[in-house]
Amino acid sequence: MRTLQRFFTVLMVLFILIAIVPLPALAASSAAIRAYDDAEATTKNYSGQTLIKAEFGSVNLKGANFSGADLQGAVFNGSELVNANLHGVNFSNGIAYLSNLAGVDLTDAILTSAMLLKSNFRDANVTGADFSFAVLDRTQTLQLCKTASGVNPITGVDTRESLGCS
What we know:
22% of the residues lie in helices and 9% in strands.
């Protein structure tokens, strides 16, 4: 039942992306959305910051500190986040596409309904992370299930269950 529910959720998310995403894309030039490039990302300390709907496109964020940041709806597109600290972030409804998150610390992170396609999570720490309704490549899900454990302290969701580990 959970697999069927997850399948329909993925279909709904894909439908929304195909049908609705072009309209909000027009608003991307709005001052409300903050885009970061390599020149602006040099400090790499975003801990505790509110970065709702921030856009990080092709940015080198290796070792960056996002611990406790509010990243709801944020976008990492083609970004390097190797060994970054995302401990306790809220990345719900976020997008990480073609991004390298190898060795990233996602302990206690909330990634509900996040789109995490074509991204690398090799050696990521996902203890206590909540991936409910998140969309990941099957190979990455299987890899994360090998070490997944814990329960998210905010949502109360078991990490392995949220990933659909068997």
